[in-house]
Amino acid sequence: MIGILGAGSLGRLWAASMPPGSAAFIARPDESPGSDLGYRFRPFNGPESIARVPWLRAYDRPELILVTTKAGDTLDAVAGLVDRCSGDTPIILFQNGLGSQQAVADQWQDRPILAASTTEGANRPEPDLLVHAGTGDTWVGPLTEPARRSVEKAVALLRRTGLAIHPEPDILQRLWQKLIINAGINPYTAILDCPNGDILAACLYQDTIDDLCRELSALIAAAGQGEETPAALRGRIERVARNTAKNTSSMRADILHGRRTEIDFINGYLVRLGKELGIETPVNQMLTERVQQLSSH
Ligand SMILES: NC(=O)c1ccc[n+]([C@@H]2O[C@H](COP(=O)([O-])OP(=O)(O)OC[C@H]3O[C@@H](n4cnc5c(N)ncnc54)[C@H](OP(=O)(O)O)[C@@H]3O)[C@@H](O)[C@H]2O)c1
Asked: When you count CB atoms within 10 A of the terminal residue's CB, does the N or C end of the chain come out lower?
């Protein structure tokens, strides 16, 4: 059985995609929900069905734990979990951005902590409806030394969903690649309140994207994540913005629904890293502050 911590969009997607009876949600330590969690599941292809997912009981011993909380909740959520599960149970972190994964891995270096990067997309247009909005790939790789032995097992268990799962020895590099795209699209969509494609013609974007890409290029190199020219980065960001032109980013959706965004783990992470590495990041700083101002309203 797989235990899932975080019964939101992504957690519900994994739970509904597993064979019936093989996934359970993990409640917060101070909560003891009784009956199964039921919701409508609209798959990417095929008819809608009802998913019924039990809550993990104290005596259940999950083979694998997926953490599908938002980045800002993850350290606390894992802290509330570790005493309730065996020290050799692999834990996979599904958060976007960077910073939350390293915080968990640093705190529990002797446990098998893994990270995943996924291009699956799920949302909840209504509280009891889970929509698998986009299908893609999921890469899973180790963050701590003991996790190296767990990758194969974790991948095999997740493949029971029928989704495309791949082992990834250098998961940090993959998380960086996604971070760059998120850093170059999400804050602009949130500030400008527009779908991804519309940022490209906006003055704010055109006036700052080259400086942002210079900051990203310097940070990637200093972090040992390879060499990429600012022009190549801009090209990559714009290809994704065009290919997803009509999509609403998760950051814009968070602002529209009055939820906390993950800006502190995207451009905010890059600002903190810049300070550590002695690299100026004024555009990342400006984007972070403007999104923080929006979410505090
Ligand atoms: N959705 C996607 O398509 C997608 C794709 C790729 C990556 N991701 C990443 O996956 C992460 C989750 O995204 P999401 O869209 O699924 O977010 P979400 O819908 O907000 O789900 C997060 C869930 O975690 C719960 N939670 C928070 N703290 C908890 C705790 N201590 N114990 C147990 N549950 C807790 C929340 O409950 P409350 O609401 O009660 O606080 C919420 O149900 C994010 O980092 C996101 O960037 C999402």
From this structure: C
Domain boundaries, the chain: 2-169, 173-296
CA–centroid distance, 88 to ligand 1, in Å, is 24
CATH placement of domain 173-296: 1.10.1040.10
Write out the two tokens for 167: 């082992």
pLDDT at 119 over 90: yes
Predicted TM-score (pTM) of the model is: 0.97
CATH tag, 2-169: 3.40.50.720
Strand spans (E) along the chain: 2-5, 23-25, 37-42, 49-53, 64-67, 91-93, 113-118, 121-126, 129-134, 137-142, 164-167
- The answer to whether 2-169 and 173-296 have equal CATH topology is no
Ligand 1 pocket (Cβ < 6 Å) reads 5-11, 28, 68-71, 73, 76-77, 80, 94-96, 118, 120-122, 250, 262
